[in-house]
Amino acid sequence: MQPNCFQVVATKVALDGIIFGPWDLLLLFTYMGLSNGKTVPQIKEDVKRDFIPALIMEGSIWPILQVANFRFVPVRNQR
Fold first, then answer.
1. Would you give per-residue pLDDT tens digits along the chain (79 residues)?
2. Nearest to 62 by CA among 12, 13, 3, 11
3. The Cα angle at residue 21 between residues 57 and 27, in degrees rounded to 5
4. Which of 30, 51, 54, 56 has the fewest CB atoms within 10 Å, i.e. is most exposed?
5. How many CA atoms lie within 13 A of 10 on its CB side?
6. Torsion sign (Cα): 17, 20, 22, 27
7. Closest C-alpha among 72, 28, 65, 60 to residue 47
8. Which residues form the signal peptide (predicted)?
């Protein structure tokens, strides 16, 4: 299969959104909270309040960009 065929691109986008998306958001919330001097309980509260809306927003925008990335950027340049 070609690395930029529809099936490969769709699989990569789905795996990225399902596996890496939630972890990336969790790490982002944690990093941003710690860098702003928040305590762990405050960060947990932020995650409880904002995680699902952020995940939905990410799921509506990021896949479009990932399709372009996986379809048009050579594999050796995808990081």
1. 677 788 888 998 999 889 999 999 999 999 999 999 999 999 999 999 999 999 999 888 889 988 888 888 888 887 6
2. 13
3. 100
4. 56
5. 4
6. negative
7. 28
8. none
pLDDT of residue 26: 95
Residues 6+ apart with CB under 8 A from 13: 63, 66, 67, 70
H/E stretch holding 71: helix 40-72
The type of residue at 76 is R
